[in-house]
Structures are given as C-alpha cells and as structure tokens.
Design a protein that fits this description.
- The chain has 217 residues and is an all-alpha fold.
- It is 58% helix and 0% strand.
- It folds into two domains: 114 residues, Hypothetical protein, domain 2 (Endonuclease III, domain 1), CATH 1.10.340.30; 83 residues, Helix-hairpin-Helix base-excision DNA repair enzymes (C-terminal) (Endonuclease Iii, domain 2, Orthogonal Bundle), CATH 1.10.1670.
- It is built from 13 helices and no strands.
- Helix 3 packs across helix 4 and helix 3 runs antiparallel to helix 9.
- The longest helix has 18 residues.
- The termini are far apart.
Length: 217
C-alpha cells in the first residue's frame, strides 16, 4: 500500500475524489457524483455533476427538478435515464425522510434509491471521514484478486474479505489507491505489468486469462 501511494503521485485522481476535494467534502455532491460515475468516464462524470449542481446545489433544489430536467443536465453519463430517476428519488428522500441532510450511516444510506454498498461506503469515507469502511468497485475487486490478497468472485465478497486481509489503517485509502492504479496501470485488459511498481511482489493471478480464453475459442 505504501508503494502504491508513492506510485500514484502525479496521476489523475478518480472523479469522485476530485469532487470531494473541490467541494469541501459535501456529502450530497459525493453521493450524486458516485452514482453518476458508474460506467462513465471521469471527465464526463465531473462535467455532468458540475452542470447539475450549478442548477440545484442542495437536496431541496434538486427535489424540485423534474426527472426530465435532471436527464438533460447529466447527459451523456451512462444509463442517464435510470440515474436521473435515482437522483430525483435520492433528493426527495433526503428532503422528506432525513430533514434535508444526507444520512451519515451505512444502513441509512443504502435505503436511498439506487444506493448500494459501494456508493454508501465511499460516501462514508469521503464525506464523513469514516475509518471503518472499505469501498470496493471493479478495480478494487480485480486488483486485490490479482495480487492474491483475496480470492473472491463478487465485489461484496471482496469487501468482506479485505476487512480481514488488510490493516485497518489502509481501509479508507484502498479505493483511491487501487482505482487510480487500475485506471492507469493495472488495467482490466492489457495491464502495464512492465510499468508496475508492485511487479516484484505480484503473483499476476489471472492476468491474461481473458486473452488466452479468446485465443482458444
């Protein structure tokens, strides 16, 4: 983890990390930005989030927007229609159920429309400075399996396994480090192993498996 922290210096941070640093860890911006980021390039996520919050900077303002208006503001993020419905539902729930404030517990966050453990954990870490959560997305799942830290099939299994495999002091940092590394070096296809600071300690589990499978068809 220390080697990764040094290696990512100078690399572009994930979009949600940028949103967090630019807006004083605003829980609503982090929550909505994380939702918009799914299957969407970081630059698109950042631009869409900025457009939405210029028009509706609070949950109250956002709840007054129509779903159609939200769609137009966040386009072209992936699955923008579904995400607009979730954003509208989240804003309504925050206003009507949580007195206009983003809830600050994992159990409450996952009751919001479209919010799963990945999003909820990242909000807990970035917005509420929790040191008790690990956020696992596809990069964290892939890389922690490649490194042999865990042997799991699904991200939620990986989250639970990492709580046992990694020292707690690193829990809040795992997502930032592995997502940045996964976007730049340890990519899902064509990982840049020759440029990897972890190569001497990496067993490269399943690296090239997809390529080998395609070649044998």
């Amino acid at each position: 983890m220390q080697a990764l922290a040094v290696a990512i210096d100078g690399m572009a941070l994930p979009a949600v990390e940028k949103i967090s640093s630019e807006h004083a860890e605003d829980p609503l911006r982090i929550l909505v930005g994380t939702m918009l980021s799914a299957r969407t390039q970081d630059a698109t996520t950042h631009a869409a989030s900025s457009r939405l919050f210029r028009v509706a900077p609070t949950a109250q303002a956002m709840s007054k927007l129509t779903t159609r208006a939200i769609e137009e503001l966040i386009f072209p993020v992936g699955f923008y229609r579904n995400k607009a419905t979730f954003v509208k539902g989240i804003a309504d729930a925050i206003v009507n159920r949580f007195n206009g404030r983003v809830p600050d517990t994992l159990d409450q966050l996952v009751t919001l429309p479209g919010v799963g453990r990945k999003t909820a954990n990242l909000v807990m870490i970035l917005a509420f400075r929790s040191r008790d959560n690990i956020c696992v997305d596809t990069h964290v799942h892939r890389i922690s399996n490649r490194l042999g830290w865990v042997r799991t099939r699904e991200p939620q299994e990986t989250e639970q396994a990492l709580y046992k495999a990694i020292e707690q002091r690193w829990w809040p940092s795992i997502n930032r480090l592995l997502v940045t590394w996964g976007q730049n070096v340890c990519r899902p296809i064509g990982p840049r192993c020759d440029a990897c600071a972890l190569l001497p300690d990496c067993p490269q589990i399943d690296v090239g498996v997809g390529k080998r499978r395609r070649a044998t068809r």
